[in-house]
Description:
The chain is α+β, with helices and mostly antiparallel strands. It is built from 23 helices and 38 strands.
Amino acid sequence: MPKEIFEVTRERFHLLDRNKYIVQGSWPKEAKVEVCLDSQKLPVKVEKLEIVSAMERFKDPDLMRGEQITMTIEMPDQLDEYRKLVIYAASEGKRTVWFSITAAELEKKRDKPQVYFEEEKVQQGMVRLRGWAIAKSPVTIRIYDENKEQLAADIQRTDRVDVDQLYDEIEHPEKTGFFTEVTGVSGKCLYVVFYAGDRKTVKVVPLRKLDILTKKADKYVKKGIRYWKSQGGAALAGKVVSKIRTVSTREIPYQKWITRHLPGKAELEKQRRTKFSYSPKISIVVPLYKTPEKYLRRLVESIQQQTYTNWELCLSDGSGDNSPIAGILKEISAKDKRIKVISHDCALQISENTNSAIEAATGDFIAFADHDDELTPHALFECVKALNEKPETLVIYSDEDKMSMDGHKFFQPHFKPDYNPDLLCTVNYICHLFVVSRKVVDKVGMLRKEFDGAQDYDFVFRCVEVVKDEEIYHVPKILYHWRCHEDSTAENPESKTYAFDAGRRAVQEHYNRIGVNAEVLDGEFLGLYRTKFVRDYDPLISIIIPNKDHIDDLKRCMDSIDRKSAYKNYEYVIVENNSTDPATFEYYKKLERENERAHVVYWDGVFNYSAINNYGASFAKGEYLLLLNNDTEIINPDCLEELLGYCMRSDVGAVGARLYYEDDTIQHAGVVIGFGGIAGHCFVMQPRGTTGYCHRIICAQDYSAVTAACMMVKRSAFEKVGGLSEDLAVAFNDIDFCMKLRKAGYLIVYNPYAELYHYESKSRGLEDTPEKVARFNREISIFEKKWPDILKNGDPYYNPNLTLKSQDFSLKRI
């Protein structure tokens, strides 16, 4: 198990008492505090931290271990004669360094404005800055170029209740928030200077360095796309994104990560001593074909090293007469009675060969492995542990990674979601390790030779079709190492193009069996598939667009649909809410005269996104509702059809789209509960053309939620769950709505083939007043109380090994 990490989340000087140094963070329970300035012990007061801001409470969930505490340390007046301050956590006779800082750094912080940047964006001659600054006297902000010449910058100052609460020693602070956009900038850097009386804090915003990084990113992305297209895609999965990470977001090397997360000797020994109340026999079936001896021996050794011992290994040698591995197999089976060898007089294809091993198996569960791969030593233990925790389980799969030919290097981990039927129809993400009850095998039959190359994909489909979703268990741990060589589809997808054709047919057959009228096409890369659903009719879609002034945005949004959309059976329900510009109302009259699809309805209440959309839905005539922001613009002509295709399925409640910012970076590609503490969009700011972790950006799949900036929902489902929750006026109402749909038994689908620009909330202001901040915190609290289980246990469509700190599916730093 990884060692628990306890870290500092904030440190600062008291604004009114320069001798009080305040440190907050997660602290190991029962540990004693020792604070030393060089060799001198300092007095310290420790209090449990009561975090009053919900945003702060959820800001950094990976650090929220142990106790949340505040330390107030009494510092001497002068620090120039000291070198370093160290805070120790003392427990069981040992001292561990919790935090340290040099005396010089401490002196720099003293008596100066305290500043935090929440957003620092540099792009194409524009700099956007957002954050807060506070001192014991009012703070003035000025911006200078690299030559120290002051720039004319419009700096908006805002009230920040959350900041005021953190610095409660200041009774009536001035506006502590700030926001500015500076255009036409050039040079190496900008200097942002925060003045408070005769004191100042200087922040340097680098320009050229970030421009170079952006150019490098573009270069790698373009190079990566060219290479993907030439190599079939899979060879470069995950590599382009890692090239463009900055130092602050660089992912942990997986080789280092996996060595820390595989169980050590003590844990393995503990597993060997564990007695389960249910101890089924697991038969590992492996088709062999002229397998190199060293790989065969390593496979067998990895199974013999299992900490769970009630297994049998069924090896079917399809090499034919004069098999080069016959002698090795005889030797191996003679030494271990749990190993069965099935020999054949003639060469067998993979399905027949695997079926021969299944026929020889006597286990309660069947596990599948390839002849040159390896299982981790705790693989079967984790499967049996799952069966004891959830006895109804009939199908198990785990996470996996790739392994070098010599077995010394591990790379390209695939950390998977829990059962995700639409992702499975896009790619065989289940793959290895796959374990299934013998009862299921008896029901669905063996592997089918007409799907050779994708026989496992076809078999997985047939298995999941006959079990309930809750009978499928995902073990979120690396239990399988997939060895890669030049003839493997893992490294050279074009070496087995027949396999990808068989995969497409496997998905098609799956739809045919479950009665879904669909056409399966090859996806953007080999091994990915795209589903187009076939409609019997064209239902009316009611496009509900809330609007307050901003008629240029509204016109662009509607024009894009009217001019581009191939689907024509739709109506507009424009929900006017509190516009003040007379030109807006003139435009509405003109719109209704000239566009027979458009209807304007008038909302008279205060702004409440949920209530406004519910109000609009009450006027809608369509069988399907499209909740759409006025600051969006469709890109592809089949956008509405793509959304409708998934939404017309009986098991789907809502469908979301792939949204881009104006600069062609990702704004939305699905939502994960837990990002930012509550929920956040996946792959935000990744350049258009990149495909994300394991190609997830371009894969149709199920998520816990999608954004209502563009969300299609079937009307019957909307009414079944009572529409959007009106106690969530601004924040998280779309996420809550999706959670209600999921609770009602519906899937939420992200479809990357519905693409739009989203110009991001131009119609609504910032959370820049005490009332807005209080409301925002209140709505976070409401969401937390309504959906505590997923916030506590994690999003089933994400993976607990991936971080919640960033939204790019990178490794968690533990």
